[in-house]
What does this fold into?
Amino acid sequence: MNEYEQYEQECELIRAENRELLDGFVSWLAAAGLSSATIERHKSNIDFYVNEFLLYESTVHASEGVDEVGAFLGYWFIRKALWASGSSIKANATSLKKFYTFMCERGAVSREAVQALKARVKEELSEWVATVERYDDPAVEPKDVWQY
It folds into this structure.
């Protein structure tokens, strides 16, 4: 088996885990009284995160992805998701906070990791939104989009 086939095989195992996690997440959201439309939006956002972003270049389990939110919302999502906008970044941030709270309640991630994720979102959300606005502005040079 070559390296790519091994990567694909590992991705399939993780996607199977992710299906179970997403089912549990949906049940958790439903128990919290969210509407079916809101639940579907959160599920879709998290599905994209765990099955596209976390598996894009390597095999990262959802429980290991709690620290990747900044790379996702501040860069990858903006470049890869054609629907990226200020409102979609905010919606994804909300979904990720809910998902990792769910993961914490399951014992899959630490309370400290979730607190760090929420602090990072609070601290950096406005910059991520500004970044997607620069990215979408034809007057802004590509080299000036990420101002770190």
